Amino acid sequence: MNSSHDNYKKKLKEAGYKLTPQRIAIINVISENKGKHLSTEEIYDIVKQRNPEMGLATVYRTLQLLDELEVVSSLNLEDGCVRYELYCHTGEHNHHHLICSNCGAVIEVEGDLLEELEKKIEMEYDFKIMDHKVKFYGLCRNCKNLV
Questions:
Q1: Do 14 and 65 fall into the same domain?
Q2: Residue 31: C-alpha distances to residues 4, 82, 98, 130, 134 (Å)
Q3: What family is this protein classified in (predicted)?
Q4: Which of 82, 84, 91, 143: disulfide with 139, CB 3.0–4.6 Å?
Q5: Helix (H) or strand (E) holding 100
Q6: pTM of the prediction?
């Protein structure tokens, strides 16, 4: 078992859960598809190729648990489809997302673009910001050129 699995196992164990083969399979699929923001159904389709006995309900339940335990992070694009990626445990904010309103492409923006704004808000409102999620909607390079 690699060190990232050890981290997930520890996180699950602390919450009273085991790192089962089903959970490992789902974590592996998300990890292997970094940056793709897979939906539950897409994760299921990939997992099913490797583990034909795994059902869609198991994938849904596992993703919900892994999201609650901050092993994976859910991304709701308000299009009726939740997507998943591994949770960032660096102590920094997760990255931001650019979402194409035309084709649905999701592009990651690395780095925290809002540090100065956060500092200003914390000082002005005496509020400690722990995290934020930012989604920008617009047209990707390909769709922009079609307009």
A1: yes
A2: 10, 17, 20, 25, 22
A3: Belongs to the Fur family.
A4: 143
A5: strand 96-100
A6: 0.74
16-30 per-residue burial string, b: 16 or more CB within 10 A, e: under 16: eeebeebbebbbebb
Kindly provide the b/e burial profile for residues 50-60, where b requires at least 16 CB atoms within 10 angstroms of the residue's own CB: ebeebeeebbe
- Selection from 69, 27, 70, 73 nearest residue 50 by Cα: 27
63-80: buried (b, 16+ CB within 10 Å) or exposed (e) per residue? Answer: bebbeeeebbbbbebeee
Q: What token pair was written down for 89?
A: 């445990």
pLDDT digits (tens, 9 = 90+) for 5-19: 678 778 888 999 988
- What is the distance between the alpha carbons of residues 93 and 88, in angstroms, rounded to a whole number? 8
Note whether 60 and 97 are same-domain residues. Answer: no
Indicate the pairing of strand 82-86 with strand 38-39: antiparallel
75 and 139 co-located in one domain: no
The pLDDT tens digits for 75-127 are: 887 777 889 988 765 555 567 888 888 888 888 787 767 888 889 999 999 99
Report the C-alpha gap between 61 and 67 in whole angstroms.
10
- Domain co-membership, 19 together with 82: yes
**12, 21 contact by CB (below 8 A):** no
